[in-house]
Amino acid sequence: LENAADLGGYASDRILKRLAAGTLRTLGVATGSSPLSLYKELERRWTPALGALNAFALDEYVGLPPGHPESYASVIRREVTDRLRLDPAKVHVPQGNAPDLAAACAEFEAAIAAAGGIDLQILGIGRNGHIGFNEPTSSLASRTRVKTLMSATRVDNSRFFTDEHQVPRHCVTQGLGTILEAREVLLMAQGAAKAEAIARAVEGPVSSMCPASVLQLHPRATLVIDEEAAQQLT
Ligand code: F6R
């Protein structure tokens, strides 16, 4: 597609179609810049069925104080819960401050299962091929767990903080195995900075060195990308 607005339009068409067909009850949502055009478009085209969705976020930083504006709980509230007028009780974000993070990760997986699984998962992609915060070397079968952020990811995300040192070193993220269980996946990416990751994900070997390549194993995964992000595809 040509630009960010087109990406949002295309992805929102797909979501609204599934809502109308009654096959979308639980949406997996990503933070970051890539899906913002989608959330804005869904806000514009809002329907009561959209407001009735359950939502599960992909990831959260470990250790940010509660209410920190850049915690993913705050970002999801601003960009997703508020725009899509979701019931906050139906929006789940992994906990980055739980005293027992491993137990909180297991509870998050159990909450996804109790909701009947994720019908459609929105993803972005990191320049290093990460999805969620599954950095290169993540097990292809991994579940929600604590991960260490790579320094390239912390540099990329420092744009949301005063400087790179404020970006947490650890995160909690849905695993690649968790993401693969979503019934449908829409990965959104725009810009030349994502072109190499997109080419590796689509045309490279399935490898933990490019975590997004695991989507080659998914029966219903669509990459919604602009021309610049597509420029290294053969
Ligand atoms: C966000 C997430 C990340 C981002 C990725 C791309 O919840 O899990 O994988 O999708 O880092 O970020 P943007 O879209 O800001 O380029």
From TrEMBL:
Annotated TM spans: none
Residues in Glucosamine/galactosamine-6-phosphate isomerase domain copies: 7-216
Keyword Hydrolase: yes
Keyword Cell inner membrane: no
Gene3D superfamilies (UniProt xref): 3.40.50.1360
InterPro entries: Glc/Gal-6P_isomerase (IPR006148), Glucosamine6P_isomerase (IPR004547), Glucosamine6P_isomerase_CS (IPR018321), NagB/RpiA_transferase-like (IPR037171)
GO molecular function, one term: identical protein binding
PROSITE patterns: GLC_GALNAC_ISOMERASE
Keyword entries, A-Z: Carbohydrate metabolism, Hydrolase
A biological-process GO annotation: carbohydrate metabolic process
SUPFAM superfamilies: NagB/RpiA/CoA transferase-like
Protein name: Glucosamine-6-phosphate deaminase
